[in-house]
Write a structure and sequence with these properties.
Elements (H helix, E strand, L loop, with lengths): L2 E4 L13 E5 H10 L7 E5 L4 E11 L2 E11 L7 E6 L5 H12 L3 E6 L10 H21 L11 E2 L3 H4 L4 E5 L17 E5 L7 H9 L3 E3 L8 H15 L4
Parallel strand pairs: 1-3, 6-7, 6-10, 7-8, 9-10, 9-11
Antiparallel strand pairs: 2-5, 3-4, 4-5
Helix pairs in contact: 2-3, 2-6
């Protein structure tokens, strides 16, 4: 299986088989010095905007990797889109959720400062945390060889979620909900999965979000950790929407 390297500055959409593509900077350094990619091997290069170029490495340098393209794939953005609204959680549970959700196919991620979140991103920590999640997303995209790089939004409060998700069908993962996610009837709108932290979504938050139009849904009889609930729900939606 080929390795995928990302460079959002490249203009790959106009390329045709036989074209030369050059990767530079940290991505090229990682390919040559860490992954030990050598001439003759096949790799993929993506722009994170739906284009993947596959080809054979022709030259390498300390911070340079050149390939001859033999395949150019252009993937349209998924529709409807799936956004994961992941509550901040203690330890690395929220990061595990972000990583797995990206590999499974989420289209965007919003960090959520929920009432029961033990972890807090305050002041400069908010942007630092967002960048950390963005780095995790980037590596997960490369590992799973995805054509689209999901954006990671800024930290949202409960009060901000309805406006941030305006026009999007908001689904609250709640073990006590009467509607099963597997019974969900798609209506063409983009979807947002809201996943609480340890202890779940607080009752006051449930009331506030339901009043704003959110729909509580459950996955099954068991209660999943915050690190697995979102990815499991995205897998269900992928099947329900025909993406898998």
């Amino acid at each position: 299986m080929s390795h995928l390297y990302l460079d959002e500055s490249l203009d790959l959409a106009a390329l045709a088989p036989g074209a030369a593509v050059e990767l530079t900077g940290d991505e090229a350094r990682h390919a040559v010095t860490v992954s030990r990619i050598r001439p003759g091997e096949r790799v993929s290069i993506g722009d994170g905007r739906g284009v993947l170029v596959r080809g054979t490495v022709t030259e390498t340098g300390p911070k340079r990797l050149a390939i001859e393209a033999d395949e150019v794939f252009v993937e349209e953005p998924p529709s409807p889109r799936i956004t994961l609204v992941q509550a901040l959680a203690k330890g690395d549970r929220d990061e595990l959720a972000v990583q797995a959700a990206t590999e499974i196919g989420v289209d965007a991620i919003v960090p959520w400062a929920s009432a029961r979140s033990v972890s807090r991103w305050e002041g400069p920590k908010a942007e630092k945390g967002r960048l950390r999640w963005a780095a995790i997303v980037r590596e997960a995209v490369k590992q799973s060889i995805r054509a689209w790089l999901p954006p990671v939004g800024s930290l949202a409060t409960t009060a901000e979620l309805p406006d941030r998700l305006a026009g999007v069908r908001m689904l609250l993962l709640e073990p006590t909900a009467t509607t099963a996610l597997t019974d969900l009837e798609p209506d063409g709108r983009d979807l947002a999965l809201v996943v609480g932290p340890e202890g779940g979504i607080a009752p006051a938050e449930l009331e506030r979000l339901i009043a704003a139009g959110a729909e509580p849904v459950r996955l099954g009889a068991s209660v999943l950790r915050t690190s697995t609930a979102g990815p499991a729900a995205i897998a269900v939606l992928n099947a329900r929407l025909g993406r898998w």
